Amino acid sequence: MPRGGKRKGTPGKGYTNRTDLGMQYTPQDAAGMATPAAGGVEAPRQAPPRPPVYAEDIPNLTDPTARPTEPISDGLAFGPGRGPEALQNRDPRNMETMKLKKWLPLLDPYVDDPETPDSVRSLIRFIRAS
Fold it and tell me: What is the pLDDT of residues 107-125, one digit of tens each?
């Protein structure tokens, strides 16, 4: 006997096709009025067409620089230009890690717990090392 119990259909005999697929249903509310799904709301407007983008519009490596007065090493710790303090988008993870250090006394017992996942142990060690 196949898994799942006894078969209800007759082997070798096909089933009839669904007849409800060709019917038109109009959603109605309790009062019998057509709902917005039935066409009571106008279709959203299309967005205005975007201007085409051509390959010439995208800069490539052979194009002249857009910042001719700025050295290529600007923002690095060596070479001409400003140093790393010039970078405005600093990594916020360092500050967040410092904030997490105050919670280390509560997290330390989990480092030695055999049921603690390795990812949590690694996180606690990372916070401790920062």
Answer: 888 888 889 999 999 988 8
